[in-house]
């Protein structure tokens, strides 16, 4: 074969990044771009003059380039590319007549499942000769099914973790869970730990358990009526840090400000782990209890009314 040195350099570069995942994303984005620009006489363009197709197509091409040039960001880029690929079906031209959407989903799955191979893997005879991604083919196939099901078919109830009785010295939650609203909820290391029961003044209460490393809330408002008067607590910003745990009976918000979802202990999201860069807007929740190592509030207000 000609040019063995050049081919060796290209092969080494390709094996240090999710090359095929980036290529599929670029092809999917290019297909979404070409459809509204093609001379076809019949298009199913649901966006504003094809702006949605152009925006999503450019974003997928950029995501593919990110996978090539910044492979360490493959988790962040792949999940966002997957969301855009799924939204392209409803945004414009049925996801490029399904071709662009499927290429984007496949590229996102391969990019998320990609695992870097040590640089000395081929030189070390003790290590098996495994090609990039060979051990993650199953994950690459199942990932779009799992994540797309969580984004599109979130109405299907997930299997909840077995309810656990709270310890005897646990904090007693109020009879009526306070209502919390915020315009922006940005968690870090968001994990749905499952469902359990916590003690209240009226007996055990079934709640969802959400754990995270930190969370930032904007325009935070809490309203409770556990007694005769209604108490309203507000803050311009509320920052939780440390071991943050939320116990909720209801959680409603718009993922990335686009896809609005509602979760309850009987209707949980899939998958249980949410990437740390995901944010939610227009959040409304029934918060039975919250624990955190540190809580910092800015512009705190407190109001009571009969």
Characterization of the model:
The protein is α+β, with helices and mostly antiparallel strands and 306 residues long. 34% of the residues lie in helices and 32% in strands. Strands 1, 2, 3, 4, 5, 6, 7, 8 and 9 form a nine-stranded antiparallel sheet that branches. Strand 2 and strand 3 form a beta hairpin. Helix 2 runs antiparallel to helix 6. The longest helix has 19 residues. About 13% of the residues have low confidence.
Please outline what is shown here.
The chain is of the alpha+beta class. It contains seven helices and nine strands, in the order αααααααβββββββββ. Strands 1, 2, 3, 4, 5, 6, 7, 8 and 9 form a nine-stranded antiparallel β-sheet that branches.
Topology:
Blueprint: H1 4-14, H2 19-37, H3 51-69, H4 74-91, H5 93-97, H6 99-113, H7 137-152, E1 179-188, E2 190-200, E3 203-224, E4 230-255, E5 259-263, E6 273-274, E7 280-291, E8 294-298, E9 301-305
Antiparallel strand pairs: 1-3, 1-7, 2-3, 2-6, 3-4, 4-5, 4-7, 4-8, 4-9
Key terms:
306 residues, nine-stranded antiparallel β-sheet, alpha+beta, elongated
Strand content: 25-35%
- Element order: H for helix, E for strand: HHHHHHHEEEEEEEEE
Query: What's the end-to-end separation, in Å?
Result: 85 Å
- Total number of strands: 9
Main sheet specs: 9 strands, antiparallel
Helix content percent band = 25-40%
As residue ranges, the low-confidence spans are 122-143, 151-169
Principal-axes shape call: elongated
Q: What is the overall pLDDT average?
A: 75
Number of helices: 7
Rg is 24 Å
**Global structural class:** alpha+beta
